Each structure stands twice: as C-alpha cells, then as structure tokens.
Amino acid sequence: MSNSCQKRYRRILQRKKERRKQEKVRRKIASRNKIREDIELNRYHSKKFLKNEVSNRLQIALYEGIRIYIDCSYEALMSPKECNKFAQQLCRLYGANKKATKPLSINLVNFSQHGPLFHACQSKCDGFLKYKIGLYSETPSSITPENIEIVYLSPDAKEPLISISENCAYVLGCLVDEHILKVMLRQEAENRGYRAVRLPIEEFTSGKISNPVLAINHVVDIMLAYMANGGDWKEALYSKLPGRFLR
C-alpha cells in the first residue's frame, strides 16, 4: 500500500472513531435528558425497580397466566445441534415474554434435568436456572387443572385457532426438525384425545406457504402480539411472522 493510500486509510479510521465518540456523547446526553424529564414528571424508576417489576410480573404469570407447555419428550430424537437450536429459541421466547405487558406462563413438560436439552439450555441461555418458567418431568395432563382444556398447536391441524382462551393450555413440540414435528404433534393429540389447532395463517395472510412450521419463539411472539393488540390475528401475524412466509 502506498503512503498516500495509508494516509487516506488512517484519515477514514480517524473520522469513524470521531463519529463513534460523538454518537456516544449524544446518546449519553439524550439518556440524561430522558431521566431528568421522567423525574420532573414523577415517572422515573431505577433499573433495579424495573427489573423487580418484570420479575414479579413473570412470577404472577407463571401461576395465573395462559399456559404454554413445551413438550420435551422428543429430545431422544434430537441431535446435539438441534438441542442447541432449541435452547436458542427458548432464549428468544423468554426474552419476548419478559417484555410483554401480559406475559404467558411458560412451562417445559416431560423435561429431564439430566438430559441433553437441559445441558443445552444451561449452556446457551444465560441464567437459565433463574428463568421464571416451570420445569416439569410430568406430562401436561398431570399438571393441568380439570377445568383447563389441553390443546395441541400443530401446523397441519385442520382447525384454526380462532382465539386464545384462559381456559386452555397450549402444547408446542420441542422438535426443531420441521418434517418430523409436523406429523408427530397432530398424531400425539389424536392418540391422547386432545384437540389440535393451528395458527390461522391461511385465513389472515396471503403468503405462499399457508401453514408453515414455525420455531417456538415465533409461535409465542405471535400469540403475545395477538393478546397485546386486543385480538387482531392479521396484525399479529404480519408483525411477527418471518418475512419469508409472507412473500
């Protein structure tokens, strides 16, 4: 590289460094102004207060919220790579649930605390053992009150999910292999005598793939959006469904 090119390259780096420094100062000033404004309007809360508020909201939702069961009985069919992929999806799911004003009750069922899924979650999910979620070795029927209907969410179910009900507990599969999952969830529901439904993607979107197999975090994202917007499936699906399914 010639001397002139080196000088030009150094000038570019210096300008980038200065812009980053200016942006950092700008963000700091904006943050201070926001805190000052919140204090004046009596709406400022410390980070510790907000963290405790989120924790309390999740704790209440765990026992009183609409139940989501993630069935981990399929872990024997999963490779280490698939277990890690599931753990990453669980991290994203939990992050979305933390931000929700009305979070769901997230529960792992048929879950072994000595199996590969547990170790993957510990490895990939920071603070996993402190998550406000239920960890059960039992089946959904063993931990569900008699007045709550167990419903399986399966992409190839004939019946669309019309509304999310407090009187239902919704079962998702932990499998990340789309081809196996699509068949097994519906069969599991039929074998156990439970109703199987699918997200109403076909009814409310115009995507080429009518009922795709979604990651568990995408399913929960859509359900949270539906609950937050007052029950509008179209808005929830278009805001949270991955773009590749809407083209």
TrEMBL record:
Stored InterPro entries: MT_TRM10-typ (IPR028564), MT_TRM10-typ_sf (IPR038459), tRNA_m1G_MeTrfase_euk (IPR007356)
GO molecular function: tRNA binding
Source organism superkingdom: Eukaryota
Signal peptide start and end residues: none
GO cellular component, one term: nucleoplasm
An example Gene Ontology biological process: tRNA N1-guanine methylation
Transmembrane segments: none
Name the record gives this protein: Uncharacterized protein
Organism: Schistosoma mattheei
